[in-house]
Amino acid sequence: MWQARASLLVAVTVVAAAVLPGGAGAVAAGRCTTSTPVKAYDKCIALPTQGATLAWTYDARNATLDAAFTGSFISPSGWVAWGVNTDAPAMTGARVLAAFSDPSTGALLALPFLLSPDVKLQASPLVSRPLDIPLLASSASLLAPARTVRDGAKVTIAATIRLSPNRARVHFVWNRGLYVQGYSPTIHPTDASDLASHATVDILTTATEASPIASTTLQWLHGSLNALSWGLLLPVGAAVARYLRPCASTGPAWFYAHAAIQATGYTMGAAGFALGLVMGAASPGVTYKLHRGLGIAAATAGSLQTLAVFFRPKTTNRYRKYWKSYHHLVGYGCVVVGVVNVFQGFEVMGLGAFYWKFGYCLALATLIGACVALEVNAWVVFCRRQQEEKLMRREVEGVVVKDRAGAF
């Protein structure tokens, strides 16, 4: 028990170092400039994600905001967008300008889009339409040395917008994507930094209220603990119980090995789940519904398995068989959900095509291969024993018949 508490204490200590300002997870702010290829501006800030910057001049007399957003493409066929949301720092309801190459001519375009709730749900393609806010001017231009849209090319989206009088706090949103279908930008990546690409800026003082993002250290610790526990240790513990228990030579050793592995895996998994909760609290507005739902399901099943140990009936109890059925069903369900969620976590962290996922797949494939071999061997042994028992019954029946015949 003290080992579990020590593991949780270490996890909490790392969390504190990663989350608190100045800790290992702190990210240095970038630099901005008021001088752009479009014109010179009065103020500028470095936006908190994607290495983007924003420069602007605000004329309080007519409430006109003259701004230039600078971002970078992540694909030759991609897009970069920036805009404002009059209601909240969120994508839904934002009025944006998206820059991308014209599919017909290859020239750089800057088209207006209204991000309705249907866009977030991907219920319909994104179609350009005039904005319902006073957009006085807009343009997009690539920054030298880039001459065409390519991965890493920087672009400046400039716009002049008339704001509501005496409105100094403006909600800005920005993002970038990989593809444009015709003249319709497709969904952007769903990494934590992409989902947190919005901020509220005081255009008079440059004060910025950005959505905090869980540190990279915290993300890697969360992923490592969960991949090792839910993704490997718990499946190994289940395999130990299934394939070592029938071996009479192991005695009760299989039970102690199974209990030790599962206890270690559950402790690490609980720590990883706790880190996930901390990351969620540190990143409001950034949600991964499927990953979160699977994580809650796996943690619930693991907790039920742990609690069930304290209510295990004795082997002579008539309810023992029902307890075993429950234990097997919940246990295997926990293993399946945990493994699926590990793959979902790779996608969330953007590691779907990296060596980390390949390494995990290799380890999981090795475990599955060993289980298949052991399963085949178990069935061979089972069939052999059945055949031997059948032959023994025939011999016994033959002896009985002979004895009866001799008696008469």
Automatic annotation (TrEMBL):
Keyword hit for Transmembrane helix: yes
Cofactor descriptive note: Binds 2 heme b groups non-covalently.
Single GO cellular component term: membrane
Residues that bind heme b: 222, 258, 291, 327
One Pfam family named in its UniProt record: Cytochrom_B561
CDD domains, A to Z: Cyt_b561_FRRS1_like, DOMON_CIL1_like
Transmembrane segments: 220-241, 253-278, 290-311, 332-356, 362-383
GO molecular function: metal ion binding
Record's signal peptide: 1-17
UniProt domain Cytochrome b561: residue ranges: 192-383
Localization annotation: Membrane
Keyword Transmembrane included in the entry's annotation: yes
InterPro entries: AIR12_DOMON (IPR045265), Cyt_b561/ferric_Rdtase_TM (IPR006593), DOMON_domain (IPR005018), UCP037471 (IPR017214)
Cofactor: heme b
SMART domains listed in its UniProt record: B561
Keywords from the named record: Electron transport, Iron, Membrane, Metal-binding, Signal, Transmembrane, Transmembrane helix, Transport
Residue ranges annotated for the DOMON domain, each copy included: 50-177
Name of the featured protein: Cytochrome b561 and DOMON domain-containing protein
Species per Swiss-Prot/TrEMBL record: Panicum virgatum (Blackwell switchgrass)
